[in-house]
Amino acid sequence: MLQRGVIGIFKYNLCVNKSDKVFILSDTHKERVGELLFYFGSRFTSYMSHFTYKPTGRHGLEPPEEVWRAVFGTDFLEEVKRRGLLKKILDKKLSEEDEFEVKEILLETTAPEDLPTVVIAINQYSISHTVFRKLCTGFLSIRFASMPLFEPFMFYTSLQANWNLVARRSVEIASLLTDADGVRVTCPKGTDITFSIKGRNGLADTGKICSPGDFGNLPAGEAFIAPLEGTASGKFVTSYAPNRRLREPVVLEVDDGSVKRISGEKEFSDFLSRLIENESQAGNIAEFGVGTNEKAKRFDNVLEAEKILGTCHIAIGDNSSFGGKVRANVHIDLLIEKPTIVLDLGGKSIKLMEEGELLLKPASDN
Fold it and tell me: pTM value?
């Protein structure tokens, strides 16, 4: 089953063929898994590279200088450094004008045949919400699979999903989020939060990363959206840090679109409080997502947990890479169990989920 799960990444999720150039990026925490992917992936294409780098230390930080060099080349890196743009990128201070300049440098210093067509980022800390990833997918049309916190057990659980069904669920829920004006989320542990999503587009993480510029998590399975900045109000409760179950739930109180107070387990509460105090915009309510993967089971690893059918999650920090306006040096997803989700659709309240049971289902679910 492990081999089936690994091969499925290349065959079904990424649709790799002989002409693809696959670049595996792993930090030292996940180097062995990167080696496993390199071994099995080599049967699908002759153009396979594996590069390992020092961990960034936090989800949402830009990858280090050596990653930019490995993927985009020395000429590009030296030019963005000479113009002072790399420091702006790493500090999350890149303006729209600066980003346009970076794209011009990419065109001037790289050739399509020298760039990968597929990037697999398997690491401890996510680089999904970064300028690096955005340039890969949105500008260079590289297919990009992000696998932060990946553990081998996922080959036996969430990577065994029915991807056609996951895709249908994800697309249909994303479409509802696009059409909705607002969301209210409650749960038995005390969550009660509302926010606007009017004018924002819902996105589907389907597990199918087969067209130029496609981006998604692996394991996949969610529909998500960036709430309108400044609109979230209420509180939400989580029993899980990204990589463990909490000794007691943590409550995040929200006003004007940002986390204002945190209580509960001291270790995780203190960590989040320090982060919000020291990092600009870290408390922003950045993302709302709904899990759609029927094979995802583990709650103590957020890469799989946020995909569990019957859950939702709220993220704080950066949302600039998927339709929001906030750039931050952090993006942390926080799981909500057994949620009740109500959408405001054209002035009508439509219940999407009730205490973890998905009510609006694709026809094949019924």
Answer: 0.86
